[in-house]
Input
Amino acid sequence: MLNLGLDILGLARFQFGMTTVFHFFFVPFSIGLAFVVAVMETMYAIKGDKDYKKMAQFWGKMFLYSFAVGVVTGIIQEFQFGMNWSEYSRFMGDIFGAPLAIEALAAFFLESTFIGMWMFTWDRFNKWVHTLFIWLVMFGSSLSALWILAANSFMQNPLGYIINAKTGHVQMVSFGKVVGNPQLWNEFPHVIFGAFVTASFVIAGCCAWRLLKKDHVTFYRKSLNVALVIGLIFSLGSIASGDMQSRYLINNQPMKFSAMEGLYKDSTNKGEWSAIAGFDTKQHKTTWSVDVPYVLNLLSYHKTTGTIKGMNTINKEMHAKYDKKFGSDMNYYVPTKTLFWSFRIMSGAGALFALLAIVGLIFNRKKSQAIMKQRWFLYILGLCLWLPFIVNTAGWFITEFGRYPWIVYGLLTIADAVSPNVSVASLLTTNIVYFLMFAGMGVVMIVLCHRVLKSGPDDELTDGYASGDTDLDPYSKGAFNHD
Amino acid sequence: MTSLQFVWFILIGVLFSGFFFLDGFDFGVGMLVKSFAKNTAERDVVIRTIGPHWDGNEVWLITAGGAMFASFPMWYATLFSGYYLILFLILAALIFRGVSFEFRANMQTDTWRNFWEWAATIGSFCAAFLFGMLFTSMIAGMPIDKNGDMTAHFTDYVNLFSLVGGVAVTVLCLVHGLNFIRLKTEGSLRDRALAWNKILYPVLFAGEVLFAVLLYFSTDFFDKKPLSTTAIVVALVIVTCLAYWGVLGNHEWLSFIGSGLGLVSVVVLIFNGLFPRVMIANNPAYSLLIKNSSNSPYTLHLMTILTFSILPIVLIYFIWSYWVFYKRLASPKQDA
Output
């Protein structure tokens, strides 16, 4: 094998990052779309307005594509723990397996069964029953997020365990503590709200592009309204839950928090917050920054006074705490630039989403034509349809890079978790093939969604979608109606 | 070995049985997209038979994997890291066939529709074959070290026994898929599926006999458990005979249940032979055992309560969803 400076650890990390990021393009999009579509169909059930049914069917098509890609990439995620991270699996099996199995059992079955029901039974069930199907899908997918985040939360903040003296592996002693982990209840709302925001701004963006072409104006304006109302509520929710989550870090993962704020030195009582800054990560210092006083304290403590420990102090503390077990040559600094900028992208976008939603709703009032005249706004909204994907990725960058060097915080390092028996060649091959597959699937997804938009809401020609029983032979033996 | 460990060993077997019974026919149907179905209209119907079900079926695999992680993490870690490349190919196959159904339906050019049809066909063939190969080579014993890490060479998983195992599972899935089509369609497709199975069953018999012979030489199953192993092999042949009888006498349910139970008996054969091990090492001292590969009693206890309270509910709506789509699909007219 050529020596390209590649090692198992680096390749396995890259693979996990790549599959997670790609998988997480589709997961929030699917969860969010299920919610938005469920809202649309519920409005149809309540009001009887056929436009809402059309909406649910139309945006539902994108949901189906996204769901299919989410499912298949999710299998990679599950298998990957055993394939690339066998030492991790052995170490964490007692804790990690349970939520994963419950996720499959309680959530995946629900989702996959009812998505099939929803897809193929538009004309066969009473509209309330049919609406219930999509709510069950939405419920199932949120439940799956809950369980996988329960597993992730343990990795961020281990609770409810002991270390088995004989094996050295973690062992669960309290399921209640694993599920009641405050990290989980800070993380879960943020992820779910983020998912709703993702779907609503993708829909809003699509509507904007069609409105610029003056295509199906009534339909897209109505869709836009639903999307922006949901987008507004949950972008505010995301900001609030994000605030909760980041403040939780101050005590729990101080290194992550200080890196997000780019603090190498302890902050002063004045609470100077760097809006933007440059870093020398080798020398562990800030080279330049644009500071605003008090903001850091407002963000951290919701008051003007207080101090935050800098990374240099935290690094020393961590050495003092962990050197005995892990040795003194550990590096506890996390990738500062990545965290600092990811945080700014994420929080900036959160505010932007809320703002866009408010302005959009004002322009899109029922009797006003403002939305059609403010073309600049539609262009911005149209471009912003890509932003949620960047923001979601940024959020996970913070959460996962900020955990460095731990795979399980304070208990197991990433380096000790990798499969020892997998070769560099295998990993390199799989990385390349996954990359190509993901790129291919991503392109097909975009092409398909674009085509759905182009063919418009009146086009119902798909795979028996919405066509109910039309392709069934009513005279066949054994055919009977259950409705 | 505690009783909870035993329960979980059985439960993993049940989940894999469910997976092979269900995904077995949708692998089979997937394989038939290109050859059996002659034109786009027929392919629409063939794919539609599994349309509402395929992803629910695949969840059985995900659940089996998750349950293995939750109950026997050492088994999960050894199996998944050891079979790295095979599992990678399985994943690729599952991904291609998984997205193919949705993507194909929305392609506007014949070239691209053709591409996704091939993806469904090849993906389904590979998935079934590779699963067969994986489990066959697993029971033959693998080079596993003291730490439980498996470092297998190409010939450890690709050899006569595993190839025969792979082909046998593929043919089983294929006849199972045809039996499913017989149940779910009406008209020419239904007739053709019957005709195909008349030819395929003798092939399957030959495969099963060859598999049983190689099983005798390649594994310790007949040495360690002569009675139960023989009984399960006989059961496999009997259910296959029943299914074949269902083909000759045109009893559709009998055939379908028969081919499904055929796949289930393969899983039973494997789990019976493994017991009390979960992974067989070439050096018997390093084999992973049920008693030392499992999670703590606390976790097993927790998982048992959760599984036995959730699974029945799942089964109810899962079966209900099949009942909703009970109706047969008509074959397209010949001139279509």
About this structure: Chain A has one domain: 8-252+335-455. The longest helix of chain A spans residues 8-47. DSSP finds 15 helices and six strands in chain A. Chain A has a mean pLDDT of 90.
